[in-house]
Design brief:
Layout: H1 2-14, E1 19-20, E2 26-27, H2 30-49, H3 55-87, H4 89-93, E3 97-103, E4 106-112, H5 113-116, H6 129-141, E5 144-151, H7 158-178, E6 186-190, H8 203-209, E7 211-218
Parallel strand pairs: 5-6
Antiparallel strand pairs: 1-2, 3-4, 4-7, 5-7
Helix pairs in contact: 2-3, 3-6, 6-7
């Protein structure tokens, strides 16, 4: 039966084969990858938990159930990623937001601090209202959770930067709540100057380090 397990695993991996996009970049099938991860996890759990002691049947059942769950999460996040990219197309063209698929179950939206907050301020700039309204519309449409994380550069004291990043993250969260997103779906935290993207030795690097991130994951109904 070991050969069967190997064949099952190889068949699932085949679904993860990468494809070359028209731009020459590798385009991963996120839904297929999520299905494989779910199937492997389900197979392991199913092999251990089959009530009748039939391990092989448990493996197969677990793999099928896990694959379905993983594919569902991947498809959900695929649709939400597309919705964010469509809604924020203008902001992306202006390099005001970067949208990344970090994992099959994790999206990261990074907003340039130049369009979100004035220097040393934690009040959301009016010019950022429209972008946040678009984000809230997508979050309302798809069952998901979002962590709002504030970051600063290293200018000023570490304690001041930590406080500023927390206040900025909370300001973004509060605006999303006022725009209609249920508060229980959002959290806010500040990382201060602790997680720079680039060196703080240059003005360009410091500008990249001043940012607000949204980490979006599936909600309970999707898992």
């Amino acid at each position: 039966m070991n050969k069967f397990y190997a064949a099952l695993f190889c068949a699932m991996l085949a679904g993860c084969a990468t494809q070359q996009g028209a731009d020459g970049q590798t385009d991963r099938n996120n839904t297929a990858i999520a299905a494989v991860v779910g199937a492997v996890a389900g197979a392991v759990i199913g092999g251990q938990l089959d009530d009748d002691g039939n391990r092989d049947r448990g493996v197969i059942t677990g793999a099928v159930v896990g694959a379905a769950a993983g594919a569902g999460i991947g498809a959900h996040m695929d649709r939400q990623e597309e919705a964010f990219r469509d809604a924020l197309a203008a902001e992306q063209r202006r390099s005001e937001v970067e949208i990344q698929r970090v994992r099959d179950d994790l999206l990261k939206l990074t907003f340039d601090n130049e369009v979100t907050f004035d220097v040393n301020e934690s009040a959301v700039k009016p010019s950022f209202f429209d972008s946040l309204a678009k984000v809230s519309e997508v979050l309302e449409k798809y069952d998901s959770r979002a962590r709002v994380i504030g970051h600063t550069d290293s200018t000023g004291s570490e304690s001041y930067n930590q406080s500023l990043s927390e206040r900025r993250a909370l300001a973004v969260k509060d605006y999303l709540v006022r725009s209609g997103v249920a508060e229980y779906r959002l959290t806010a935290e500040g990382r201060g100057e602790l997680e720079p993207r680039e060196s703080n030795a240059t003005a360009a690097g410091r500008a990249l380090n001043r940012r607000v991130e949204l980490l979006v994951t599936p909600g309970d109904s999707v898992r």
